[in-house]
Design goal:
Blueprint: H1 2-27, H2 35-50, H3 54-66, H4 68-74, H5 76-81, H6 83-88, H7 90-114, H8 119-125, H9 132-142, H10 146-170, H11 176-195, H12 200-225
Helix pairs in contact: 1-2, 1-3, 7-8, 7-11, 7-12, 9-10, 9-12, 10-11, 11-12
């Protein structure tokens, strides 16, 4: 019974913190007030100050995590609604997804190599830009650290949501297809969620690129790692 109460409390706490963070973001829009970032930092601070362990938090957090799968599947709705436009830009989308996947892998591998990281860490960081379940499978096959890749994936997703709009503005990128491709290939599901703030077409393209780029990266990672 105690575990049930703890689980319910953690779910309610997470939900309330996210709602508060979302309200703050609406009034003070900033990369550092992005709801997923602000609520995550707040939860970490609360757990650290109270001494509550991660395992205790996950008694409730696991149920939130459980629904991430259905939420990702629900992204197929805007994808279906924009099917005609997706067919229209099929060539550009295909090229963009491949380029985005390749860039994500190469920048991670080269960056780690230049910093003098060990091979196991280079093998870990290679798949940072795809969604966590796929990244973990790719990293395991490559010989990297499957626990650490989850952190890299989270950093890629959150940083894309935080700084993606600024980079798009800086580069004068305004086309909805380009925006969707940018978020989907670099920041997976978190990027797809952020792209929906721009519009339904951006969200649909982002979901499509997130899905296909996972396949592309799973092929590129072992090939690129052969040359390091």
């Amino acid at each position: 019974m105690t575990n049930v109460l703890i689980g319910i409390f953690m779910i309610v706490m997470t939900f309330l913190l996210y709602r508060i963070s979302k309200k703050i973001y609406g009034e003070i829009p900033s990369p550092f007030t992005l709801p997923i970032f602000l609520s995550m930092v707040t939860i970490v601070i609360i757990l650290s100050l109270t001494g509550i362990s991660y395992n205790t938090y996950m008694m409730g957090g696991q149920w939130i995590d459980f629904f991430l799968g259905p939420i990702v599947v629900s992204f197929a709705i805007p994808l279906y609604k924009e099917l005609a436009l997706i067919k229209k830009y099929a060539n550009a989308i295909g090229t963009g997804i491949f380029a985005g996947g390749l860039t994500g892998v190469v920048t991670g591998v080269i960056g780690a190599k230049l910093l003098g990281f060990d091979n196991w860490l280079i093998q870990t960081v290679a798949a940072k830009s795809v969604t966590a379940p796929i990244a973990i499978s790719i990293t395991e096959a490559a010989g990297g650290n499957t626990s650490l890749i989850a952190i890299f994936v989270m950093i890629a997703g959150i940083s894309g949501g935080m700084f993606g709009p600024f980079i798009l503005k800086l580069c004068h990128i305004q086309h909805p297809v380009a925006i969707g491709l940018s978020f989907g290939t670099s920041s997976h599901a978190m990027g797809a969620a952020k792209s929906l703030e721009f519009g339904k077409l951006e969200g649909a393209i982002s979901v499509l690129s997130m899905t296909i780029s996972a396949v592309v990266v799973s092929v590129l990672v072992p090939v690129i790692l052969l040359f390091i």
